[in-house]
Specification:
Kynurenine_monooxygenase (chains A, B), six-stranded mixed beta sheet, alpha/beta, about 425 residues, FAD/NAD(P)-binding domain, EC 1.14.13.9 (chains A, B), FAD-bd (chains A, B), homodimer
């Protein structure tokens, strides 16, 4: 009814990918946004942050498109990956295209680069101020008050806000403050597997040392290695395995023997000396899944991105889901005329169940990547999927495609898969695959 | 090999039931124990604390026996409840005996009284000091350092310890510190139901107003009321219902109309005026379930009781499970010669899975209490159970009995029930009951 929209004073906690993105969206809506990041400005001082390359897909792309960054990210800095390249133990390769019908790709993107352009995009809005080196000490979710300490000067600052957006990652302090509130549900689960990063060097003549248009996977049952192409012609690889397995690789000899057995082609490409150097640089890292409900408290606090739904990386949906949070928030601000008393509960109502679903899917996809891609049942199911999608392009969209190449609600992707499983079971009489959602 | 046991300097955080009990056990082993409680001494200044009466059963009794308090608690202050008394809507009653074969009872015990005698028992050990009004502000789980504030003087005290025992309840700060550590799994879940306490007056001639040897239940499908006898001839009742239902009871008229419909006999016994007064004294309280793993961090910190496994109250195992934690800790201290590097991981290894199980069982028992006790299938299954237990007293122990009247590991109680269900399905061809574990 044309009611005047109040300009909100928003405090975004966390200047990672999702924090920088939500800052852009809220600034674009005309709100006053202060973004607080505990690290220095990564555009000036690039400290090595979180690893595992990003794979940008439909949900993330749509968010970037809304602030006119999609073309820059995809076409100038993204590496298109059209499918999985499976490396078997005997050195043979098998290609599994992600979307042979519509030719959709996922894009390998450098996390630091993407974070830098999002910060710069945010800073272009005159109603945005970014405070680096500001670590959150405490927040009052009832009043919107926040207390920060400057990491270099130890100066304390107290600020007020109409809305706190906790985009402060998997270990979110805003979430930990919500956990103390009644009727806040939260499940924090570490898997028994960890990971170590290794890096593949540039090939001859400044070319990729293996195909630059694939996500490479070495599935080995209980563990696996993956590698994603970077735009400097290197690959970033990650070995995922049970902590027990990783802890047994405690000497260069054990490590090399393990690679000779399991990843002979990987070892040849990386080189023994480099592998040992990379591998022992850090300890194995943990993998965490966070499911919680609701995402808001009262009308002054909301968590988004990893703060709300950190997930294991095996569906490559962590960033994409976080970016989709921002699209949803923007849409609800539009619908409810920026009235937070309506926007925040509506956000939780819609989003929590979807993110429970994608966290579960990410966990299950680890099994698929490690194991099923080498099994005949899986390959055959992919084939059936492709044929049916080709025959019924509107009505038969495989689970991977609905998650990765559509904006179908994550919850619906699962129920969609459930009826497909029923149909293809009747078609093929395969039962083992039913286990896999 | 007769190696000298080191005297440990233990800090127990929380002087509730489990904190006071573990203090006794550790003091008995010869350790130096400081117990910190944020409230004043309840033996002097009794502030109304947590409600819901306690129902003491085998696990709790065994722990009290070990410090010579069982007889005092059970025979002098416990009210034996031999079964459930079901109140149907038409006012008719149905008795369901807990253990008609071995005649075991559960005992209604006053929480404050039990807490008082445990504190006094702890204080009798000269190697114990109790610090009341000491609220924990922070702890270093690596070093065992703790920081307290005195609730009346605001004085800060820093103390050192060899072992921190977090017995600080469902909202445990020690647990919240553990949550920040890698590989700590925790699931915090509120149910959509809350509860309100009401109280039944003393009957004529200082007698109970209804049977004093039963746990009274008014099962009504989606909600229920229960009442436990107190030793002053009153009953403490609790109405458990979805928050939506409770919130609709927002005027005396709505409340009385609801009771007239659903609990006409309860209303007559309590009286309209008293019911209205009790009901509107406080807001409905929440019900929380906590499952986490592990229970220890390093060799200096352990959580027990509600801090480790708060559960909904429907199996009456919260205190009993907490007391059994103390029995297990004591046993492992014995086995490992008080070597914490062995005791603490072993405690987590054994105990976490069992407490996941009892938390789940407590959740399922809510359905049983609300619903199944009125269904023919349930009554019939109880009958079959009784006959089979009478025929095979060593081999056929119903689930309720293994949980309540034995020290069988909670996890094994569930698997034990699973095979019984299979057998009795074959005997009776009932299928609905299989849902209920």
């Amino acid at each position: 009814m044309g009611s005047e929209v109040r300009t909100l004073n928003v405090a975004v906690v966390g200047g990672g990918l999702v924090g920088a993105l939500v800052t852009c969206f809220l600034a674009k809506r005309g709100h006053r946004v202060n973004l607080y990041e505990y690290r220095p400005d990564i555009r000036v001082e690039n400290s090595r942050g979180v690893s595992i390359d990003l794979a940008l897909s439909a949900r993330g792309r749509e968010a970037l498109r809304a602030i006119d960054l999609e073309d820059l990210v995809i076409n100038h800095h993204g590496i298109a990956m059209k499918g999985r390249m499976i490396h078997l133990k005997d050195g043979s390769l098998k290609e599994i295209i992600y979307d042979s019908v519509n030719k959709n790709c996922i894009y390998s993107v450098n996390r630091t680069y993407l974070n830098q352009i999002l910060l710069s995009a945010a800073e272009k809005y005159e109603n945005v101020t970014i405070f680096f080196n500001h670590k959150l000490l405490d927040a009052d979710l009832d009043t919107g008050a926040l207390k920060f300490i400057h990491m270099q000067t130890d100066e304390i600052s107290n600020v007020e806000s109409d809305l706190i957006i906790g985009a402060d990652g998997a270990y979110s302090l805003i979430r930990r403050l919500m956990i103390k509130k009644p009727r806040f549900n939260c499940n924090q689960a570490y898997i028994d597997h960890g990971y170590v990063e290794v890096s593949y060097p540039i090939g001859k003549d400044n070319k990729y040392i293996m195909s630059g248009n694939h996500l490479h996977i070495w599935p080995r049952g209980n563990f696996m290695m993956i590698a994603l192409p970077n735009d400097d012609y290197t690959f970033t690889g990650n070995l995922f395995a049970p902590f027990k397995t990783l802890e047994a690789l405690n000497t260069p000899e054990n490590l090399l023997e393990f690679f000779r057995q399991e990843f002979p082609d990987g070892l040849r490409l990386i080189g023994e000396e480099k592998l040992v150097k990379d591998f022992f640089q850090t300890s194995p890292k943990t993998l965490l899944s966070i499911q919680c409900k609701p995402y808001h408290f009262g009308s002054k606090a909301l968590i988004i991105g990893d703060a709300a739904h950190a997930m294991v990386p095996f569906y490559a949906q962590g960033m994409n889901a976080g970016f989709e949070d921002v699209l949803l928030l923007d849409k609800l601000m539009e619908i409810h005329n920026d009235n937070l008393e309506k926007v925040l509960p509506h956000f939780s109502e819609i989003r929590c169940d979807d993110c429970y679903a994608i966290c579960d899917l990410a966990m299950y996809n680890y099994v698929e990547m490690r194991e099923l891609v080498t099994k005949k049942a899986f390959i055959f199911r992919k084939y059936i999927d492709t044929v049916l999608q080709w025959l019924f392009p509107k009505n038969w969209i495989p689970l991977y495609s609905t998650v990765t190449f559509s904006r179908m609600r994550y919850r619906d992707c699962i129920s969609n898969k459930a009826w497909q499983d029923k149909v293809s079971l009747n078609l093929t009489n395969f039962d083992s695959i039913a286990l896999q959602y």
